[in-house]
Amino acid sequence: MESAVRELPLVGKIPASSLARLPAGEKPILLVVSDTEEEFDWSKPHDRNETAVTAMRKIDRAQRVFDEYSIKPCYVIDYPVASQPDGYEPLQAIHGDGRCTIGAHVHPWVNPPHDEEVCRRNSFVGNLPSDLEEAKLRVLNEEIARRFGAPATIYKAGRYGVGPNTSRILEKLGFDVDLSICPPFDYSPEAGPDFRDYPTGPYWFGRDRRMLCAPSTGALVGYLGGLMRPVYELANWGPFLKLKAPGILLRLGAVERIHLSTEGSTVKENIRLTRWLHTRGERVFTMSFHSPSVVPGCTPYVGSEAELTAFLDSFRRYFDYFFGELGGVTMTPLELRDHLAKGTA
């Protein structure tokens, strides 16, 4: 039994024994996670010279919304944010007041040491040699410790880019929670990980079953049951994609893929996803967004002042549903880990 426990993975086939399930009567729990990073052109190849973090000066636009609901978001910050005053100073003020938690977020192309070629495959840090993946995270966490008084113990790989060595590295460096898994998305066409078969809820991993993985919340939703995945993938295949098959299936309510986020998902879609998973026993939900979205033009999701207003309002409308109609509560990733470890309501 001991040897089986010591093999619990972060990536690969997740055994049922490692799932961290809450009772059906438990109040649903919401985590809010910000991929806190530099501004760059999403339509162009990655560039080591794109390291501006001026949008962080406006992060209070989102933080004020979280404060309204007594939410402590987790800002997983990358090297440009952790190493430049424009990036870390606004967060120091929020963190110093106890209004957020800080995690680590590796964008390998802008995170030293720069010993790899900048290319699509290497934008997933888990594809790098183990020693280089570890070195990048170690350098980032040393910077975080300098700015916030302690190293991060929460991790989210940039581009969800975990790999076969990530679990060992996280355990070695003293991390407690990983937020990198993103079901049901498949990044293998870009040489990234494939999360289609991963659980939607949290699970324990690592040699000593000590670390918790809390995935980003996402799922295929619809009435096709076990046929949803093959039908969805067929609809997104060349000829059917040209015929706009995914949109047809969505309008029919047959199958749609939803990611719990204020970017790329509407409030109605986020609520539909949450209801779908909640009725099927899920009790932990993770909402995510990118920090540069607080300034129009910095991400594809917010291009104008009107879209910024809608972006911020979508948080409020979803929180009203989650804490009101659903009767949910909020936690930080570390609070969730402690809560699940105790196994108490």
Could you explain the architecture of this structure?
This protein is an alpha/beta fold. It has two domains: 2-10 and 26-217 and 260-342, Glycoside hydrolase/deacetylase (TIM Barrel), CATH 3.20.20; 220-257, no CATH class. Helices cover 35% and strands 12% of the residues. The chain is built from twelve helices and eleven strands. The strands form three sheets. Strands 1, 2, 3, 10 and 11 form a five-stranded parallel sheet that branches. Strands 4-5-7-6 form a four-stranded mixed sheet. The chain is globular. The chain starts with a helix and ends with a helix.
* Overall helicity: 25-40%
The total beta strand count reads 11
Major sheet, described briefly?
A: 5 strands, parallel
- Spell out the CATH superfamily of the largest domain: Glycoside hydrolase/deacetylase
- Total helical elements: 12
Strand content is 5-15%
Architecture of the largest domain in CATH? Alpha-Beta Barrel
**Average pLDDT for all residues:** 95
Q: Supply the CATH class of the largest domain.
A: Alpha Beta
Number of domains: 2
> What would the principal axes of the Cα set say about the shape?
globular
Are there runs of 5+ residues with pLDDT below 50, and where? 1-5
Rg calculated over all Cα atoms: 19 Å
CATH-assigned fold name of the largest domain? TIM Barrel
Provide the structure class.
alpha/beta
- What is the ordering of alpha helices and beta strands? HEHEHHEHEHEEEEHHHEHEHEH
Oligomer: single chain
Distance between the termini: 28 Å
